[in-house]
Each structure stands twice: as C-alpha cells, then as structure tokens.
Amino acid sequence: MLGAVNPPVFENSVFTFATAEELGEAVRNEDERYVYWRGTNPTVDLAQRKLAALERGERAKCFASGMGAISATISSLVSAGDHVLVLGAVYGPTTQFLRYLEKFGVTHTHVRDLGEGDSAITASTRLLYFESPSYMAYAVVDIAEVTGWARERGLVTVMDNTWSTPLFQKPLTMGVDLVVHSLSKYVGGHSDLVGGVVIGPERLIRPLALTEYQLYGAAMSPHDAAKVIKGLRTLPVRMAAHQERGLAVAAFLQDHPAVRSVNHPGLPSHPGHAIALRQMSGFSSLFSLELDTESRPEVGAFLARLRHFRIGVSWGGFESLVNAPALSTEESVRATMGIPVGLVRLSVGLEPAEILIKDLGLALEGMSA
Q1: Which of 250, 286, 314 lies closest to 168 in space, CA to CA?
Q2: From the candidates 31, 45, 160, 224, which is the catalytic residue?
Q3: Which of 3, 128, 267, 309 has the fewest CB atoms within 10 Å, measured from its CB?
Q4: What does pLDDT average to in each consecutive run of 10 residues of the chain (369 residues)?
Q5: Residue 185 annotated to the active site
Q6: Looking at residue 15, what is its pLDDT?
Q7: Annotated catalytic, 358?
Q8: By C-alpha distance, which of 86, 132, 88, 134 is closest to 106?
Q9: pLDDT on residue 354
Q10: Which GO MF terms are attached to this record (predicted)?
C-alpha cells in the first residue's frame, strides 16, 4: 500500500457494513470476516497466514499469549468426563491448566513413554499432548512414532513446537493434528511481545476460532501481530546465530567437572540426537544443565555469580537468560516433571559465545571453591 515495505497496522476495533444483511453474514463467519477486533483483524490475519504457511498448516489462529492458545486448544478438544494423556515433561502452566480442568470433570495422566501410555489410556482418553524437545529436560520424542501410536487409538494429538520454531521443525508434516507456539519466544525474538498461535487443519481451527477464541477473549492485538510479522522476517538469520552460540556454550559445559550433564539435542552425546537429526533441520539455543549439587542455596549462588546471563523467565531474545526450576517452579509441578534440584536452564542469546563461556566458567569455579 503506497509503496510501504511494512504492512499497515489496522488499529480499529469495529468494521462497518452497508446493510444489516451483510453484517449478519459476516457475524456468522467471524473467524474469517472482519467484524470486531475480538474476532479477527487484517494485521492479525496477515500474521496468521504467514505462520500457517511456515508451519505447513491450513490455518492458524493467533492469541494474546501462548497460554491463551494452549488453554483454548485443549478446551476445544475435550468435554466433561474426557481424559488427556500427557507424554513427557511439558510447560509448567500447561500442567496447571490441566489440573484446573479437573473442576470441570476433565482428568489427565502424565506418562514418560508410550509403554506407560498403553497402561494409562482409558476409554475416555481423547487427547495426547506433548512437546519435543520436552520442557526443561529437552528429551526428543519420535514424532512420527507418537502420532502413529495415537492415531491407532483414536486420539487427537497436540504438540508444543515453541523450542524449534516453525523454521526448524514441522510437526504437522509428521502427523500431529494441532501445533501450538508461544510467539513471545524466538518468533518475536526481542522480548517485547506476548503472543501465541495454534496451527492445523481447517476442520479443527474453525470451530476453535468461532467458540473458544471468541469466548475466552484472548485476542492478539494488531500491534503485536505487526511485531510477529517483523520477527518472522529475521527469524532465519537469528536462529542460525542462536544455534551457533548455543552449541558452543553447550559443548563447553559438557566437559566441565562441576556439571553432571547437559541436555541439548544438538550435542552428539544427547540420547535423542539421532532422532533430532531426522526430524529437525536445526537447533535452538535453549537447553539445561545439571550442576553437581543437591543444594538449593548452592544453585542460587551459582546464578548470582553470573554477570552476562540475567536471571529471568522466558527466552528467545537477544539477551542470555538463566533460571533454576528448583528455585522458581511450584514444587508439585517440578516433582511431576522429575526435575532435579541442580537443574539450570540457559537461554543463550546473541552475545558472543566466548563472553558467555567465560561468564559460565567463572561462575562454575565457585562451585568447587
């Protein structure tokens, strides 16, 4: 429009029509027609079309947060009396939301692998939810194997693909029914956006867009959609840099005597590395390490000694961040996920790797001082 290289931001909350009949027809198709900001908006719609194309999905629906997308997606697929199977470790608030659904008669079970899944599945199981790589532990799931297993048992599959971004992994092409992302992380890329998206086939997205999206009210703003669009433009360049720095830092840590283990799927030593190479085209820079300690104060002291890694939640921006679940995560959630006391999560940003490695090295020296 007018030669602008950036799409315009449509700020208006209301769209008008020439006749009441036209308005009525638009309201009946508000998932696609512009009626009111809470339904959709031209700027948001453009972001949705770009995300769907990148993920190889038919449609996408953007939300005001990642949890908005996750909660609406799960709610759209279950009813009172249904059961959800959760495979492996997943985002803490997702577990909290599933516990919240118990008041409405929806139950869930966490399992470590498909073998346990066969024992946990019931006649009321409707949904299999998982992440790959998994939350905090970064275990790799064989996506094609899991979706085949679920399909044989009549389960819908939902996968959180935030870690890899739609650039490095495309679960829909491997049989997953719906994919969710927190757009606040790598897609946004600058720690100035909170947003989420669900992507998948028309038959599942349209009813969700007309019901849960409208009723929950977690509508993405056009300004945030514009940030998503800008983030997508630089995503390939940023992810290549994140991958390079993340692998360099992980390789340093895996050889340090104060570190028990490093959980990064890009390392050849990772148990799921071969599967990761088969189903992913690259690696992000979020991973965890386990310090050689069982002491919470010692973990806290390690974090305090860091200078370039800032202590905070979230990830995927320029700045490097560090977090320790034993110090910040609800104990019951941490226990459910099997997260050890010494586990520390690193989000490697875009600072030079040698600076970050030096920072970690000095902080680790204090572990044995």
Answers
A1: 286
A2: 160
A3: 3
A4: 80 88 88 80 94 98 97 98 96 94 97 94 97 95 98 98 98 98 97 97 95 92 96 98 98 96 97 98 98 92 95 94 84 70 96 98 82
A5: yes
A6: 86
A7: no
A8: 86
A9: 98
A10: transaminase activity
- Tell me how far apart the alpha carbons of residues 156 and 166 are, in angstroms, rounded to a whole number: 20
**Marked catalytic residue, from 33, 36, 38, 230:** 38
Confirm whether 160 is a catalytic residue.
yes
Of the candidates 88, 79, 89, the one whose C-alpha atom is nearest the C-alpha of residue 116 is 88
Nearest residue to 188 via CA among 197, 198, 177: 197
CA torsion sign for 115, 117, 118, 120 is: positive
Beta bridge partners of 182: 196
Active site (annotated) includes residue 38: yes
DSSP 69-119: HHHHHHHHH--TT-EEEEES---HHHHHHHHHGGGGT-EEEEESSHHHHHH
AA letter at 71: S
Residue from 34, 45, 61, 91 carrying the catalytic annotation: 91
| Bridge partner residues of 86 (DSSP) | 110, 129
